[in-house]
Amino acid sequence: MTAVNRVAIAGTGVAGLAAAIQLAKAGVEVDVFEARPGMSVTGSGISLQGNALRVFDALGAWDDIRAAGYPFEGLTLRAPGPGAPVVAALPDVKTGGPDYPAAMGMERAALAAILLDHAERAGATVRFGAKVTAIGEGADDAVDVFVNGESVGSYDLLIGADGVHSAVRDLIGIETRPQPTGMGIWRTFVSRPADVERSELYYGGPVYIAGYTPTGENSMYAFLVEKAEDRAGVSDADAAQIMLEESLAYDGPWNSIRADLEAGAPVNYTWFTKHIVEEPWNRGRVVIIGDAAHSCPPTIAQGAAQGLEDALVLTELLVGRAAVDQTLWDEFHARRLPRATAVVEASAQLGQWQIDGNREADAGGLIFGIAQKMAQPA
Predict the structure, then answer these.
(1) Distance (Å) of CA 178 to CA 258, 272, 293, 296, 343
(2) Alpha-carbon span 5 to 28, nearest angstrom
(3) Which residues partner with 321 through β-bridges?
(4) Nearest alpha carbon to residue 301 among 115, 104, 111, 114
(5) Considering the entire predicted model, what is its pTM?
(6) Whose CB among 132, 190, 273, 296 lies 3.0–4.6 Å from 260's, allowing a Cys bridge?
(7) CB atoms < 10 A from the CB of 6, how many?
(8) For the segment 76-101, what is each residue's pLDDT rounded down to a tens digit?
(9) Residue 287: partners with Cβ closer than 8 Å, 6 or more residues away
(10) How far apart are CA 152 and CA 133, in angstroms?
(11) Residue 330 contacts by C-beta under 8 Å, 6 or more apart in sequence?
């Protein structure tokens, strides 16, 4: 017996689809509502740490994701300037345990497609162009859900996994909002040179960080982290030109990246944000998870992993308990809030040290400490 029989989920990001998969597999009726008209995915690639891969295995999606991505071990640090000299080759903590790679890069759209396929095959119903616009109290502790202004019925639970600008978070009166950190990131999706076999980062030069991560045999995503600028209205051609110019200080594989940019590789730009909802993430039978509850700069590549862990812990409790009660919520928050908070604070601190030009900071120690925490299952 599960604590819920019928659940609504807002959002088709990794957290929402992971929750849909686990609940549908347990026989729960699941309706997923996505405000966007289709499965369009902003961004180019994504870095996934081992603890995210461990969750994919629990979902039953690991084999498909492993085949679509590029697993690797370790991290290379390079310096700007001629030849892009290697400063260090660092091992990664295997946060998923010995059965999984330390990390994996993959195309965001491919990840989204795989998770959507698994959710629908598990029995979840997914509706696009369907925004949760209101909620109300139903009979017997149920929550009435309104989509695009119309009632779609009563549910035992509404999970708000609808991202950093969560409508569900607003509907339940949580006032915490993502705040800019002062950094912005240019991203592009390009071909992978044969010698790029794991993530590589360049510190120094005209931007805070220049880097790239392999996402497949023939692909990778590259990025430049700069001081946050108002880039609204920048044309595609100008965006590519800005990325070209800001990358001129970086040699090695950046030469190949620039060639792809000149040939028309897509470019996008976003600001880094941070927030953590410190109060309980639920209000009665409505709960937020993933980026709706916490966001952080991708400085330690744990954002997606934390959303996945939210979904896994929540669904474990919903499937393993007989009722949605305060005991369930207390355990959920005890297992998720400290862990997500540690990631948000560490990710933001790493970025702030770079903004401040603090060369005495123990960035390696902070990253290793968080990795050790993440190696313990959520």
Answers:
(1) 32, 9, 9, 9, 15
(2) 5
(3) none
(4) 104
(5) 0.96
(6) 190
(7) 15
(8) 999 999 999 999 888 888 999 999 99
(9) 157, 158, 159, 160, 281, 314, 329, 332
(10) 11
(11) none
Token pair for residue 221? Answer: 């995503």
Q: Dig out the tokens for 315 from the structure.
A: 């669904």
Per the document, the length of the chain is 378
DSSP secondary structure letters along 243-275 = HHHHTTTB-TTHHHHHHHHHTT--EEEEEEEEE
The radius of gyration of the chain from alpha carbons, rounded to an integer in Å, stands at: 21
Here the tokens at position 119 are: 């959710």
- The total number of structural domains in the chain stands at 1
pLDDT attached to residue 44: 78
The whole-angstrom separation of Cα 106 and Cα 217 is 10
CB contact at 8 A, 283 and 292 = no
CATH no. for residue 133?
3.50.50.60
Residue 101, φ and ψ in degrees, nearest 5: -60, 160
Angle in degrees, 0-180, between the axes of helices 50-59 and 14-25, rounded to the nearest 10 = 30
Domain residue limits at 351? 6-50+106-178+274-374
In a domain, 198, yes or no: no
Of the chain, the percentage scoring pLDDT greater than 90 comes to: 91
3-state secondary structure at position 147: strand
Is 76 a member of any domain? no
